[in-house]
Amino acid sequence: MLIEIGELSSFKEGQLKLAVINNKNYAIVKLKGNFYCLRGNCTHNQGPLWEGTIEGNTLICPWHSAQFDIKTGKVLRGPALVDLKILNLKQKDGKLFADVK
To answer: What DSSP designation does 48 have?
Structure first.
């Protein structure tokens, strides 16, 4: 099932944006023209990842600096130990959609 997230034009390169999908927070980011959707709360202490920072392909939690690979959700550096869930995204008619199963 596809859930609309927003207009493609509303996403700026390299900036994180919060999306609430099925009552769960997700961090959306556009990198080099590609869109990524990661679970929005850090697996360490539920920090708001949409308020984090990006260095290259790495998402850094604003609370305790856990690091995650934006493309895969894998933990790169603790204190987090559990990878982030990622959702597949689709583009259609100038809009971005999350593919939830």
So the answer is: B
